[in-house]
Amino acid sequence: MPPKPAAACNAPPVNAQSNDFTSTSQDFERDLTSLAGRARGATRARVVRRAAIAYGRIVLLLTLAAASANASVAALSPVFGAIPAGRWHFALVASALFTGWSSNLHLQRLLPPHRPLAIFLPLLAAYVPAVQYVLSSGGASISTLAGPRWGPVVIEALTLFPLLAATAACVATEFESATGIDEVVPLPRWIGDALPGIGSWAVFRLAESVTVFTEITLSAPKVVAWLTTRVASQLALATAYCIVSRPSRLWMYAVPAILHAMLLNSHLAGSPWALALNNRALQSDGWVVLDRRESITGYVSVIENLSQGFRVLRCDHSLLGGEWTRFPANPVAEPVYGVFVMLEAVRLVNVPDKTIRDADASCLVVGLGIGTAPAAFVAHGIDTTVVELDPVVHEFASRYFHLPANHKAVLEDAVSYTDRLVAEQSVDLNRSGLATGRFDYIVHDVFTGGAEPIPLFTLEFLQNLHALLKPSGVIAINYAGDLALTPIKAVMLTIRAVFPACRIFREHERRNSDGPDFTNCIVFCIKQGKRDADITFRAPLEADLLRSNVRKQFLMPKYEVFDADFRSTEDARIVRRNDTAQLTKHHAESALGHWAVMRQVVPAKVWELW
């Protein structure tokens, strides 16, 4: 036989060739499977990363929108008051967000190609403070023409609404670019369709609740405190919009708005230039702003009328008190408003079987204002404690008005303070078995912006004051409201539930028989007494007047209010901590009436320039 070829001799057996081919095929399939897995992993990571970036931008945009909404309503509060400024604010915000969310594609089609809507957000944000300033100030301002009922709506519709609508549209677009997350976290369709809208609204509301700027201005460093003021915060938000949005040359068009806010906007608190600008504008009318600060209760300032010789303390769109500068303080200043003098008549109430000597007496004053009543109590030699929530109000009263230093200042919420005192008194009662109270007199004088601070007129708070009052003690409560509305009936019903013996006096005689009847009322009550007739006043002595002409005229209450003077036909009930709706639902009308009164007391120009 011929020899076999070498290749044939060296060739592997058929079965060996088959096994090697199978092994190679399996390795190839494993490699393909591994590559596919790595590709899927990489794709999944890219989807998650892309979605995280998109959702991060969404949260930032919604946070900026919420902060802008808070800053807008805060900027309008000094001109219109906090309640009128916020009356339609929620409805306008909700409608702006819905409009932007539902029409993002239509808005984008209106723009030139390659111009995403996001690049216009910094422009819209930058011009908000400038346009609001122009619309709310000046002789033909929206404030004067539309008043507090519609003025805030018009201004925010022209400034805040476009910003929020554009932001919501950008958020909707971001959600569309982040739809790949469904590949990572699959959801039922009905949840996936509803979740973006519901989640966006939840994030917005959460951000809205934590971006209230004025709450942190007192404890923050100076730079941070300035950035959290009304106008400065709006400028900071415009800058933040620039960072979040895509870079664009359009940003240069925001420079005029920023320069206007820095150089021409007198509302920019904390700026000496803005304050000088403000005073130059007010000089022709004989007014000057001595000092101003944004604080936890609002915009607080000291303004003086140079031509007539008096100064007042302002908080947003209300006055906390005033005194004449053309008369010497001897020994106390002459107050501008007589209602604060009437509070001092708490000393004139006859107490059965008891004579309270000033040198032995103690007084608790809830709510400071400029300190008219506390200064008088200190001048009479009474040990006086003042509870004031706002440290800036106390600082300005001490620096620019004649609040004496020899008083005890408690700078905290009156509810928590009285809760603590009552708890301490209960411990003393358990130890000694005697409940004597702490104060001979209590003066309750809290009010701002056309509405009462509701927690300080509840049954529970008044019961605290009753417990802190000595058995022979007297309390005077100042309530400012409209006698034609239900809240004053509810408050008086609550007061009488704690203090059965009370008499009510108003600041001035009623001038009109129909329409609103907004006035300051002083309620005098005694702890020991069952009938209103138990309250009588002694005639003031010369020492009671403190050599003050205003006290000669206003110290003795004159114009008594009876139940028949409350004109509301709605049933009233006792105000409790968990049942305050009967007061809040009338706040808007009361605040509108208060706004009209304040515009008669101080010129519109002074309110608008703040």
Automatic annotation (TrEMBL):
SUPFAM superfamilies: S-adenosyl-L-methionine-dependent methyltransferases. InterPro entries: SAM-dependent_MTases_sf. Residues 1-16 have a biased composition (Low complexity). The chain crosses the membrane at residues 54-76, 88-105, 117-135. Residues 1-24 are annotated as: Disordered. Keywords: Membrane, Transmembrane, Transmembrane helix. Signal peptide: none annotated. Coiled coil: none annotated. The keyword Transmembrane helix applies. The keyword Transmembrane helix applies. NCBIfam families: MFS_SpdSyn. This is Spermine/spermidine synthase.
